[in-house]
Batch of 2 targets.
Target 1
Amino acid sequence: MLGDAQEVARRQFLIVVSSGALAGTFVADRPLQLPQALPETPSQSVNVKAFGARGDGTGDDSGAINAALEFAYRHSVAVVIPPGRYRTVSGIVHKSGVTVRGAGAGSTTIVNMSPIRNMAQAVAWHLGTYGPGNAASSVHREPGIIIEDTAEGSTSVKLSDQAAGAQLAPGDLVSLEGGNVNKSVESPRTPNAVARIIRSEPATGLVFLDGRAPKLATVEGRRPVLRRLNSGLVPSLGPDAASGGTAHLTVRAALSGVTIISAAEGYPPINLACAETTISDVQTEGWTSLSGNPVVRCVFKNIVGLYNHGAVELAYMSHDNQFENCQWTRTGRDPSPGTSFGVWVNPSEGARDSSFTNCSVSDMTEQMTEAALPALELHAGCRWAGGTVASSRSRLAVLAYSGAVVEGTTIVAHRGNAVEIGGNSIVSGCKVETLGGPPAKGIHVSKWGRGARVSGNVLGRTGARTPSDTIIDEGVQTTLLNNETY
């Protein structure tokens, strides 16, 4: 017989699974499997097998893993996934504040085998979701506080008069949502920016942030809003009529020690819409390794990604992320080579200011296409230091624009140009090889390259008589220092 504390937890949990995203997972004549003792402190953890997960590669462990995550979210404990192969047929929704630990990549494996092709079910692991088809996610955040005005580039927002007394404290994470009038993101429910509150002045309605605020506008009659992301359990906002799904941002969570595989073409193993979250010692296999919108102040360490369409996309106002010791490798044939990419910080959607240290991408395939994006594309304050970039797929291996920095990296272009550099960007201390022969260029400073700096690089064309060189478009003011050819 359950003790009082366990019986309360059992009743609370049954309410959750009968009314929320896990509805239909359990049947009335099958008792919910709870841990033997209710965890009492955040340092304790629960095992997914206590909730019915099998880990033998058969059946469907989706419900059990989601149940463990929901329990952990409500009781502030970690989730442990022991060695095994966990077959799932719907997405796992990783809740805010929850740490998930596997036994190690290769020992703990999650394999999504969903026959239904939509984001909610075909993505193996959701570290946050939003947009069409994400109806499986639930929203753990407060209703919106209406924003009266924002000025692009400002570090503050002004709340409406009715919201001037809102209790916002320094350290709160918030999302700013509404039509971003200067970008391509126009959904009224899209989190256009995620920021941390530095100071709040209830009397004036001003809220000061640690990042630049986008200029937001009313869209479809909905005024821009600010939401707290770390305020505990709140009622679900329900489906978004405009997108057919719900929005879920995961904040201050952690995932480590697992391999995650998605067998569905067109869907990533891990979808990201998260802030201040850490992913480490994880291997992914699928269409793309990691796809994120938005991803803010997250840390990625020791990621091994196998992909056949794209390695990493940071989109929709992603910023200030750190990648360390990550490796991405293209495997297999891409069914959509014209839209394929390697590591891509998407400038059209405002992504910026992320760093990659000792990371490598091997973007090799026989499917070269002129329309494909480079193996590495950086913009707006992004930095790539060390590691290797190798490409045979695109006409260009590396594109660095708008203040991006590439330094100390080995860049090998098996076809086409090795590097193209734009305004105020830096390429320094790199070893650059072009293997495709003339007219392929080592480093091309484009007509938009004013203020670019190319220094300390060693450029060569292996096996060819003519060395790789640096080409500067006519009339461009740039700095060339101490570059060598061989």
Note: Residues 1-42, 131-141, 231-246 have pLDDT under 50 and may be disordered.
Target 2
Amino acid sequence: MEQGYYRAEDLITARIALADVVEKGFETLLNDKSQVKIIVEP
């Protein structure tokens, strides 16, 4: 990433609210292997 081959923004596959971390965060990561990184926003 430091060399510019990958942009961090391209690795984020979803953004979710803190209140949805279990339902939309953990469950999604466990069930959908195409997910790379889910950002939790307050």
Note: Strands lie at 12-17, 37-41.
